[in-house]
Amino acid sequence: MSAGFAMLRFFSRLRRCLCLLAPVMLLLAVWPAPVLAQTAPATNAKVDEFVKLLADPEVRDWLQAQYKTASPPAPENAAPSADGSAVSLFASTLRRHLQSMIAAAPTLPTQAMRASDIIAVEFEERGSFEILGLIAGFILVGLGLDWVAYRMTGSFRHWLNSQSWSSPHGRARALLGRVAYAAIMLLLFTLGSAGLFLSFEWPPLLREVVIAYLIAAVITRGSLMLGRALLIPPSVPLTHAQEFRVLPMSDESAAHWYRWIAINVAWFAVVGATFTLLPTFGFDVDARRLLSLPVGFVQLVLVELAIWLRPAPAQNGTEHFNGPKVWLLSAYFVVLWLLWLIAPLVFRFAVAAFLLPAIIIISHRAVYFLLRAPEPPSTEKPVTPVLLAVIDRGIRVALIVGVVALVAHLSGVDTSMMAASETMAARLLRGGVKALVILLAADFGWCLIKALIARKLTEGTETHVGDVEEGHSQVSAHHARLRTLLPIFQNMLFAVILVIAILMVLSSLGIEIGPLIAGAGVVGVAIGFGAQTLVKDIISGVFFLLDDAFRVGEYIVSGSYKGTVEAFSLRSVKLRHHRGPLFTVPFGELGAVQNLSRDWVIDKFSIKVDYKTDIDQARKLVKKIGQDLAADPEFAADIIEPLKMQGVENFGDYGIELRVKMKTKPGGQFVLRRKALVAIKRAFEENGIEIPYPTVHVREGENPMAAAARLMSVPKDLPREAG
């Protein structure tokens, strides 16, 4: 009975501590007035001696031996056989964890009584409320320093508010300023709370308890300041807050996630501080794992509340976190909670497997949203794709390396031992690390190459000054060639980087790549003999491109195929017919290519006039029409030589055929011909020049029977009258 009452007394004190400390931790954003820190009272020599005895490893070992003698642990299960599967190994480990937790339940009263005695002896003169007041006092000192800094940084906040929300550089400067401001405020809070506390002499146990909860306060304060810098909740007085946020979200969503992230971090920090103190008070591993069951369930409930109480998704589609995703995420956190209880090592890897892709996706969206193209009224240039790729992939590399290092540290992996050991596991770990570095480097290099090629392609599309004055924009021939060659060069580079990365990864894992390369050569020769058509297409395409026979955007004719070149691959070209169909033609089937879009085009066509027409007058009219078209701003850019008449081409059955020509840029001849024919018809009609056309004459006024009789009476040897 005494042990049960001791356990109840210990948990009662612990509950009062947490209940009094939790509101302080959740209200750290408030700016109260500072209070003065109090000096520590004199400690009792006997208490110090008792605490030193408890800190002695031999004494702790003796206490644990006494505890194990009082309640023997559950028997260990036999290790699984060498031929056992991974499932059986996991099941046996799970069974041992559950048995240890069940066996630890009867020992909790004894451990709680011992912890209660330690607390009663150590804190007999102060009491729990005095310790809580000490923690709260140092927290208030830190908040007081923040308040003073807040009053002194009004001009800096005004500079932050004056940054341009419509330009990427303004948004980036504002973000860096907010993060720097949050870091300064967090540093001052840390100095005013934990730093000031450490500047005094305290009893060892009191020092350990207070500094643990002050660190929890610093973590909570850091989450609040970082949330204000990144999410910018409505409580932050900042205009155009939605444009300055790192992610596209509404004010309601920003306030929701800011609040619930702070609540979850505060609970996690307080619980973490408490559990770091439990070994000091004599709680063993199994007891701590059993106590983590309820506090972990509370953390799970807080996370689920944050997910299910979020605001409704925005109508513009920027917040599409709903439907099955929510159910899957909720189930994932439930599984995480179970893994935390029964398989801590698997729990770490499960957290890393979820957090790493999630953070990478969030950071990718944040980079491209924050550095998006300028919006009116900004006149700044957009951020180059190269810089975007460097920032995005740099953050990705840092996140992956950081998460891997953190998981290795939490899993107890000794890097020095791993580098020196020659076991199979150590070799695999070293190979895995090298493979990860190789893949990260290959990914970073590939994204940089893609960004450079994209930048080169976009730089070529520019409007020349002469073209602007003439009201026409064109793509230079150099850029057309780049648009043709760079995509193929990009695909070839991707294949090269992929092959080199795979070979380097295999080599880092201890696989000999020499035989693989030799085997690949033999396979390549065999494929070359078996796929001669494919090889022919690839080689023909290389020579077509080297000869600059055609470029993307040009209209070509090859045999029965014709159309505008849209894209290339290693073995074929895509032609878009002017009526819509898309032809994919292998290079080996092209043969002779007729390019209708290169340099210039001479368009010749014929018109017919009556035999009574004045040829000189017609020549002058055609010349006048050509001059008018050349002076028209709509057509002047396409005309190289104006429309003119070459002379009489032929004498037809019902008129004189005149030959007309003009020299234009490729593609402009069709519109100009239609415009010229309309103008010629109008000018000829105004000047009395007839355009002949075939007619049929019908004679009327004679009886058909009489005409037939007259024709029958004509002698057969005489020619008949044409009628």
Mean pLDDT: 77
Low-confidence stretches: 1-8, 14-43, 70-84, 316-320, 462-474, 718-723
Q: Count the strands?
A: 8
Q: What is the domain tally?
A: 4
- Rough outline: elongated
Radius of gyration, in angstroms, nearest whole number: 43 Å
How many DSSP H or I helices?
Answer: 24
Q: For the terminal residues, how far apart are their CA atoms?
A: 139 Å
Largest sheet: 5 strands, antiparallel
What level of helicity do the residues show? Answer: 55-70%
Query: Structural class of the secondary structure composition?
Result: alpha+beta
- The percent range for strand residues is 5-15%
Sheet with the most strands: spatial strand order: 4-3-2-1-5
Can you give keywords for this protein?
723 residues; alpha+beta; SH3 type barrels; three-stranded antiparallel beta sheet; 8 strands; 8% strand; elongated; disordered N terminus; disordered C terminus
